[in-house]
Every structure is written in C-alpha cells, then in structure tokens.
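Posted in: Structural Biology > Protein-Ligand Complexes

Title: Requesting predicted complex, alpha-D-glucopyranose in pocket

I'd be grateful if someone could produce the 3D structure tokens for the following input. Sequence and ligand are given below.
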Amino acid sequence: MNRLDRAAAFERAAAVLRENDRGAYTIPTKGLYPFQWNWDSCLTALGLRHLDEARAWQEVETLLAHQWPDGMVPHIVFHVDDDGYFPGPSVWRTGRPVPTSGITQPPVLAFVMKRLHDEAGDKELARRKAHGLLAKADAWHRWFYACRDPEGTGLVAIIHPWESGRDNSIDWDEAMMRVPTDGVEPYERRDTKHVVAAQRPHKADYDRFLWLLQRFRDLGWDNARLHDASPFRVVDPGFNAILIRSDSDLADLAQTLGEPEIAARARARVAKARTAFEGLWSDAFGQYLCLDRVSNQLVDSPSIGGLLPVFAGLGDETHQRSIAGRIEAWRKRTRFGVASHDPADRRFESKRYWRGPVWIIVNMLIADGLRRCNLADAAAKVEAGSLALIEESGFAEYYDPISGEGLGGGHFTWTAAMVAELVKRAA
Ligand code: GLC
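-- Reply #1 --
Done. Output follows.
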C-alpha cells in the first residue's frame, strides 16, 4: 500500500470506529453484537488511540468497571437492552449490577495497556491511567491461575469455547463431544438472522454452548467450583500465550510505574507458565497443540491457536522458525492472510467462522510475535496480507482465505482498529 492508500485506509477505519462508538465503549458491529465485548474492546483501544488517547483509555476503563469481585473480567457487558443478540442477560443471570456474561475472554488487556502507555503522546495522562489500572489487571491474572489452574500446573484451562474467542474452532470438537445436550432450555438463535448460517457455528455447537452456560448458572457462577465441574476443560496454547505475554507486559509496566510487588508477582507467574508451556509442543505437527485437561491428551488439531505462542516469544529458535514455516505452508494453499486453521486439514472450512477464515486481529498478534522473535520478514508478509484483504473486501468480521470474500458482520470495529494501528504505527 502506498502512502496515499494508507491515509485513505486510515480514514475509512476511523469512520468505522466512530460509527460503532457508544460514548464510553464501542460495540463490535451493529445488529450482530450490540454490547461491549472484552477482547474486542481492548484491541479497539489500540485503534482509538490514533483518534483520541483519552477515549482509548476510557474504552478499557469502562470494561474494567465491570470486573467481578473475584477478579474475573467478563466476556460481555450488557450496557443496554437489545434482543438482537442471544443469549442475553436473562439467560446468563449472573446477578451483576450491570448485567454481564459469566465467563471470560483472552486477556489482551495488559498488552494493550503497555502499548498505550509506552507509545503515548500525552505521557502524563498515560502514567496516571495505566497506574490506575495495574491492580485490576493483576487481580484478573491472579484469578486465572487460582480458578482456571486449581492444581497449579502453570497453565490455565478454558471451560467454555466462547472463552477462547475462537468459538467453534476444530480444536474443541473432541472435548465438545463430552458435553451433553439434554436439558437445554428451548431457545431461538439470533446470529443467523444477521449472517447466513453457513458462516456461523452449527446448532449442535450452540446446544453445547448453552448446556455449559446452564451448568455454570446452576452452580451460581461460583468460580471456585466451575473448573472442576465442567466437562469441557481445554488448555489452549493461544489463550495461554496471550496471558503470558500480557503478564510479562504487566510486569514491565508495573516496574516502570513503581509497583515492584505487582511486577514480582507477574514475573513469577510468567516463569512458571513458560516452563509448563513446552509440554504443548508437537514435533509431528511442528507447532503447539491444545491439551484436553479431562483426557490429558494433546488434541490433533493444527489451528492458529498453536501458532500464537510467538506472540509471547515462547519456544526456542527452532520452534519459532518451525511456526514461521507453518505459516508459509498455510499461505501457499490460500491467497490471503493466515487462515484460522491448517488449510491442509480435511476438516478445514474456508467460510465457517473459526474453522478456516482469516481473522485480522489474530493475524496482527502473530505479526507482532514474529517481530518479537526476529522474524521481521515473515511478519511483514502477514501484515501485507491483512491490508490486501481490506483493499479487497473492506472491514469485515472475517474473510475467506481462498477467495478474499468478507464474511460475518460488516463495518467491524476490531478489524478497523487493527488497520488504524497498522498504518499509523508503520508511518
Ligand atoms: C465472536 C468471536 C469473539 C468476539 C465476538 C465479538 O463471538 O468469536 O472472539 O469477541 O464475536 O466480536
């Protein structure tokens, strides 16, 4: 993209961010997702900072204002009523003053806080805002290891596919077979009113998503009990890599801001997690895999979750180069971006949500990771692939990696935020 095209891309991205701005938070897109989502909001702040730094801090502050007393930051905050989305607050019934869901999402928060702080124009504002959020981020990270790693293995499990942010990934298929569907209350999906069904999860997935939700609700959303009570407990390398990167960014930020105790706690968590992490490596696949915590087996599913560990600089040089090689091999089978699943896998579907399509946010986390691992050429290719998709199909929720077609919701906030970040940071 030349300079002029980049300027135009930024203006278009900024227009999407403004369109979805609801004052103190941003919705992912109109219709399909009318509330505040956790990792969407944090990543959106990276785009917003190029329009208004104070507004970017506000985005994450609003999210954290709804943190639970136990430390969890919920995956959705239902600021308003809207029956265009299912399941809404009357299904979750978490009892929070402003209704929220009862599960969490990938903790990109501290990674975002560090970047907002380190690259701020208004340094004083950044110091004040970041300092005010440190203890909250630390509480969330402590919650993860206390509630999602009760045996102290060093790695956390997700207990619902929605927590991964990759809702219907092939990674969960096996573990989801263990989730029953009896007793699921009758329901009507709303997602397929906004997006064609072939681009969304199957009904069999939704039944199980809801069974898990009802199970946790029956246990009063008591996080001390949910992990062991869930038939779905998966250690996702992508999710853990995000937590490890955020924890190490939290440590650096806390050190800079004069909070050595928070820094020391975060460093200790990172050290333990890094050691445990190598147990997720697969020589056969040349990448990391999920661990099913119920069967204690690695899951034969080569997804983008197993490439994300570069984001935290995990593995040795051989592992990191192997991941770069995987990305190259996947790219040879597609035309655009890094797919969400290995295109050579017979289960790959180029249009179905997290079972193949390209998601620009994950591409950007991977590109950031490749640079961190001194693989700048590979990173530049991933970034160029993301911009090519925008030129081809605008700001979609996700894209078909073979045709480049935009899929899911349109005018999508975090896609726009990543483009704003990409073109401004490179400038
Ligand atoms: C879908 C995605 C999830 C995202 C949400 C809002 O559920 O899988 O990652 O946070 O939509 O955009």
